[in-house]
Structures are given as structure tokens and as C-alpha cells.
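Q: What residues go here?
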């Protein structure tokens, strides 16, 4: 029997998925989480074979949860199911050991097959997403630019970002200006949105 943890902040989707997976003879859902933090807690408690994680959840996102589980529950294979698929997110997911990455348009029967695939140690990546990831290329941002954009994403003023990053306001402005130029954005807020959509933050 393959034990599964489901994590999705949309209660209806999570419940429907749990009901459909229980129809499979060899799969049982042992825990359901509505946030990323809850997913990590429940995974530590139940030690599932497979964690099926939504990409965007309150608190920790699915990729960060997968990264935490890699260390906390190493025998648990993580997979991402998302309606917000971006090539950059796929690359980030693969870098932390995620074994499956599919869109929420997948059928329950197909999802069950993918759960079996990742449980055996193999990978399953949606073909269209894989093609997009190859076409997208690597992030043009330096690690520092990505860090500062992540602060700017929440609307923090330059002075606050400088304090948080232990940099001068002039240095922060230069990094944010460089990031915006690389992304063809008119300001740091738009640059942050673009970088987030591409999965570079």
C-alpha cells in the first residue's frame, strides 16, 4: 500500500482528490494539509511514501515543503500538482529533488499512475512544462538581485530593503535597477512580478 500526504489550500480540490485516490486499491491517503507548514508537520508525523503538494500554498510553497521533506522525511517522494505552472518553478522543483511535476488538469486515474511512478524512484514531468523549461533558459538574475527583488515584491521601500539586506540604499537601488533592466521591467515591482512568474524567486 502506498501512503500519501495531500497538501492543497483549496479544501474542495483536496477533498475531491482524496476521495478519488481512495478508490485505488494500492493507495491510501494518510494525511491532508491546507498549508505548507502543516504539510511538513503532518509528513513528519505520518511518514508518507509520497507527498502530493500544491505549488502555491499559504506559508511555505510546495517546492520549499519538498526541500524540507527531503531532509526531514528522506524516504518520502515529493511531487508538485499545480494550476500555476512556470518553467522556472519546474527547474527549482527539480533542484530540490521533486520527482513529479504536473498540472491540475491531469485526471485522477493518471495522477494515481504518477504517484506509483514516483514511489518506485522514477520521475514524471509534464512534457509541455519540460519543453517550456528548456526554452526558458536560466535566470538572468544574480543571487543578490533575486534576494532584493523578493523583498521588493511585498512592496517594501528601498530604505527597508537596505536595512534588511545590510546594504546602503544606493547599492540596493543599483541592484534593483539592474534586475529591472535585465527583465525589461519599468520598475522593481514589475520586475519582482516577472521574476516570480518565471519561478526565479
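A:
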Amino acid at each position: 500500500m502506498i501512503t500519501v500526504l495531500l497538501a492543497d489550500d483549496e479544501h474542495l480540490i483536496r477533498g475531491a482528490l482524496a476521495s478519488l485516490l481512495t478508490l485505488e486499491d494500492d493507495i491510501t491517503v494518510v494525511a491532508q494539509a491546507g498549508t505548507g507548514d502543516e504539510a511538513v508537520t503532518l509528513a513528519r508525523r505520518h511518514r508518507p511514501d509520497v507527498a502530493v503538494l500544491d505549488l502555491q500554498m499559504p506559508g511555505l510553497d510546495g517546492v520549499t515543503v519538498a526541500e524540507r521533506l527531503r531532509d526531514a522525511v528522506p524516504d518520502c517522494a515529493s511531487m508538485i500538482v499545480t494550476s500555476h505552472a512556470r518553467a522556472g518553478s519546474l527547474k527549482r522543483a527539480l533542484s530540490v529533488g521533486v520527482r513529479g511535476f504536473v498540472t491540475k488538469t491531469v485526471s485522477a486515474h493518471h495522477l494515481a499512475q504518477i504517484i506509483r511512478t514516483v514511489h518506485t524512484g522514477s520521475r514524471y514531468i509534464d512534457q509541455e512544462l519540460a519543453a517550456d523549461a528548456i526554452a526558458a533558459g536560466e535566470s538572468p538574475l544574480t543571487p543578490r538581485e533575486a534576494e532584493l527583488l523578493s523583498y521588493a515584491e511585498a512592496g517594501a521601500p528601498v530604505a527597508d530593503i537596505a536595512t534588511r539586506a545590510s546594504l546602503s540604499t544606493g547599492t540596493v537601488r543599483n541592484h534593483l535597477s539592474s534586475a529591472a533592466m535585465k527583465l525589461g521591467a519599468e520598475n522593481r515591482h514589475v520586475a519582482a512580478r516577472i521574476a516570480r512568474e518565471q519561478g526565479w524567486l
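A: Context that may help when evaluating the design: The mean pLDDT is 91. The chain has ten helices and six strands.
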